[in-house]
Amino acid sequence: MAEYNELVERYLAVWNEGDEQARAAAIAALWTENATYTDPMAEVAGHAGIAAVISGVQGMFPGHVFQVHGPVDGHHNVVRFGWELVPAAGGESLVIGFDVAVLAEDGRIRAVHGFLDKVPAAV
After folding, report:
1. Are 67 and 83 in contact (CB under 8 A)?
2. Domain 2-118 has what CATH class?
3. Which 3 state secondary structure label does DSSP give 108?
4. Can you give the residue ranges of the SnoaL-like domain (predicted)?
């Protein structure tokens, strides 16, 4: 389980990375070149698409960070985990979601399927 926890920590760190170049390098290290990301509001492929979604979310929710919400679980090449978007200074979560990541042979992410459990009314 430690490897799954570490993967999720790296995944959320990418979503929290504010520097575009550092984020691009982290995406390349964590995701396969043709990886996909799908949730109710986005469906993208490749590093540029993933970077664009993350940048868009950061733009919509400035001053907020992603953190793990609940236990991380996994088997074979699949990892599931909950996350929440909270004010960086602390406070109640604004968004809560659940992601399922499918890993490639080399341990990088090849697909993420995201679900939103709590969203603000304005989104």
Report:
1. yes
2. alpha beta
3. coil
4. 8-111
Task: Report domain extents, the chain.
Answer: 2-118
Run of H or E residues at 2: helix 2-16
Q: Which amino acid is at 49?
A: G
**Tens of each residue's pLDDT in the chain, 123 residues:** 789 999 999 999 999 999 999 999 999 999 999 999 999 999 999 999 999 999 999 999 999 999 999 999 999 999 999 999 999 999 999 999 999 999 999 999 999 999 999 998 765
- How is residue 123 written in tokens? 């989104």
DSSP structure string for 33-92? EEEEEEETTEEEEHHHHHHHHHHHHHHHSTTEEEEEEEEEEEETTEEEEEEEEEETT--S
Give the global pTM: 0.94
